[in-house]
């Protein structure tokens, strides 16, 4: 991976002529994304993210923290002990420059011997496992990091709306995917192309079934305006 997302984040933080990211998926056309959006403050965040940050408590793990906007709010405004992790070294460098006390280049699947009261998987964070057949291992790892009485706060979207309907009202789902929420992401920045990577948008019912199968309760906290939602996972 060239870490183009991280390069864009660090360019913005250091005022190094940042440009828009170009993102596309296997089911959507290329679209421009302003890097500034990743640096949004609490007031500019979607209601779902605001709700999640309001529920955050205790020792917090922010998984896939990106530019660290969620961690920064929890650390500065709520005074919480936050650990921000991301596989992007450039993003973590930006987080440190922004003043996040504990920012680490780390894959959550490699984290061990630590417990957290709140684990954040925001901006479709559960999708980082890439494919539905990997969700069990992913949830088991997240579960192992929860302190007694801990919670996982995650948001995602049901992207069924992106597929065409047939005459009977059903959806035309490509036959080359196991689950319709699985996509391949392509990212470009400053003329460079990132290595395509797998991502997943998981609908609430599928998440709930996966959670229950892995010993977790799943509660719907908030529905968004466009097929998105916030859910809370906790140990049964």
From TrEMBL:
Domain of life from the UniProt record: Bacteria
Gene3D superfamilies documented for this protein: Vaccinia Virus protein VP39 (3.40.50.150)
Gene Ontology BP annotations: methylation
Annotated Methyltransferase domain residues: 60-150
InterPro entries linked to this entry: Methyltransf_25, Methyltransf_Superfamily, SAM-dependent_MTases_sf
SUPFAM superfamilies, alphabetized: S-adenosyl-L-methionine-dependent methyltransferases (SSF53335)
Keyword hit for Mitochondrion: no
UniProt entry keywords in alphabetical sequence: Methyltransferase, Transferase
GO molecular function, one term: methyltransferase activity
Keyword Lipid metabolism: no
Matches recorded under PANTHER family: METHYLTRANSFERASE (PTHR42912), N6-ADENOSINE-METHYLTRANSFERASE TMT1A (PTHR42912:SF93)
Protein name: Class I SAM-dependent methyltransferase
Taxon lineage: Bacteria, Pseudomonadati, Bacteroidota, Flavobacteriia, Flavobacteriales
